[in-house]
Specification:
285 residues; mainly alpha
Length: 285
């Protein structure tokens, strides 16, 4: 059973996650926006490592850090690709909705942590609810655009499964998700900035200079939210926490409606209800 502390904390993290995804979607260039956001957060992470003297995790956790940083770079590129071809209310639900069931299987295979029947029901309801929210928007896309958006969104989902499994293993080996995420923020930020610099050159620097302090603040918010999720995974089943994190789609739905002025119909609200029932099932599983 998920404790109330884990449930509330992960729901707050989910709201923060939806917020920074909305910022990426509103940016002029999704790849440069996400690079500035997560590349700049490497600076405060490195400062924290030096000032607080946060040791680099060793053993399995160190290998997980290196693997996760590489997977996150692929994730951010896939995320930017998804947002180039579809709006937030389609791409975000597809990529997040297909991940929980796959994560449950991955953690079962690699961590021998299979969900209980009620947890399976909750995970399935959340996934179906999230996918329902995204499916209605697919009708507004042309067939080629739908295929491109779906391909990028599913690639993003695959990277989500990969880094969630890797980082949950790493966090459990360190038993200190905060230090783990601090090092992850530094490594992935530097790696992502380096890769995009090689691809886009000075346009990345110019974009960063014109962006102001908002991207760094959003990056810190993103990594803090992820640290909360990893903390939850050290205290509860990974698959349940990962599924609960996908309630971020509910917050994204509100953002898409109120801030981005994207249309939302009854089918999406039906999906939202399925997500809420799934959350209740997970809470008591």
């Amino acid at each position: 059973m998920l404790g109330w502390d884990v449930t509330v904390a992960v729901l707050c993290a989910a709201a923060a996650h939806a917020g920074w995804n909305a910022l990426i979607k509103r940016g002029r260039d999704p790849l440069l926006e996400t690079t500035v956001m997560h590349g700049s957060v490497a600076l405060p992470a490195l400062l924290a490592i030096l000032v607080i003297d946060i040791p680099l995790p060793d053993g399995t956790a160190r290998l997980c850090l290196l693997a996760s940083a590489a997977v996150h770079v692929l994730y951010f590129h896939a995320l930017a690709g998804a947002y180039r071809h579809a709006d937030l209310s389609f791409a975000y639900p597809v990529m997040r909705g297909s991940a929980p069931l796959l994560t449950a299987v991955a953690t079962g295979v690699f961590m021998h942590e299979w969900p209980r029947p009620l947890a399976w029901a909750g995970i399935t309801l959340i996934s179906l609810g999230v996918l329902t929210i995204g499916s209605t928007r697919a009708q507004a896309l042309t067939a080629p655009a739908r295929r491109k958006a779906l391909g990028w969104a599913l690639l993003t989902a695959g990277t989500i499964v990969a880094y969630t499994t890797i980082d949950s293993i790493g966090a459990r080996h360190t038993m200190n998700p905060w230090s783990y995420v601090t090092w992850l923020a530094a490594l992935e930020g530097l790696l992502l900035a380096g890769v995009v610099w090689m691809r886009r050159g000075r346009s990345l620097l110019q974009y960063a200079l014109n962006s102001g302090p908002v991207p760094m603040a959003a990056g810190v918010m993103s990594m803090t939210a992820y640290a909360v999720a990893l903390w939850g995974m050290t205290r509860a089943p990974v698959a349940s926490v990962a599924a609960l994190r996908e309630t971020s789609v509910l917050f994204a739905l509100v953002i898409a409606t109120r801030l981005l002025k994207e249309p939302v119909g009854p089918t999406r609200w039906l999906g939202a209800c399925a997500i809420m029932v799934g959350v209740i099932a997970l809470r008591y599983a």
